[in-house]
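Researcher: Next sequence.
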Amino acid sequence: MGTSSRRILKINLSKDFREVKDDEVVVEAFIELYVNDELLFSFTATPEELKELAVGLLLSEGILEKLSDLESVDIEDKKIYVQASHSIESRLRSYRKLKPSKPTCGGGLNVGFKLRALDSLTVKPIPSNLKVNQESILEAASKLRGYSKIYRKTGGTHSAAIFNSEAELLSFAEDIGRHNAVDKAIGSAVLRNIDLESSFLFCSGRLSLEVVLKAIRVGIPIVSSISAPTSLGIEAADQNKVTLIGFVRGKRFNVYSHPWRIHGLETLQVSS
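Model: Next structure:
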């Protein structure tokens, strides 16, 4: 389904030097996602793992409640056609009301609409009692870098992965968009029947409200990144019993909510 990168020519230029060289850039393509014959999303993405992207996106946005709501996924060039159970129609109606009239980054709901959606689309506290060692978080960061092959070639992608408590890789994805990478990793895991409530998400991008909500909707109890969280990301994690971890670099990281899921931090408290 397309390639993730392609060759180009570039000019290397400095004050005293210029050179024409080959280089490699990440591929960006326009994607359309149809649900029950209705165009629901249009956005740009790296045109690979499109089935995983569709499944992860629809689950993490609360349009599909469970994988069994899905009947079929067909891909024609860069168009994704999803047929789903009629049981999702009420959620589709809610989503249509909340969808902005103008496109937003990634083709989904913007932050303001997502905040309004919290009352009408289900977001529940995470019941999982998963606990991990500090070493597992650090090991996951190292593995994420190691698996990010497109990034090493192009410098143009975000990465996301699902790990078990021992930092064993369960699913991995790269994409030009940080939300897309998360959706692909979630979709890949769900399609292989991985228990997300017993897993944690590690990604390269900012831990914004949108990313945290995606994890909440599919039941992931720990969300971590090499990057920073936002204020709304922390608030959403705290309110929904998600352990939020940022700035995982070298041998250190920061915990912003529910530190009791990290062995050794059970008695510590943080407030958002």
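Model: The first helix runs from residue 50 to 60. The chain has two domains: 29-117, 134-261.
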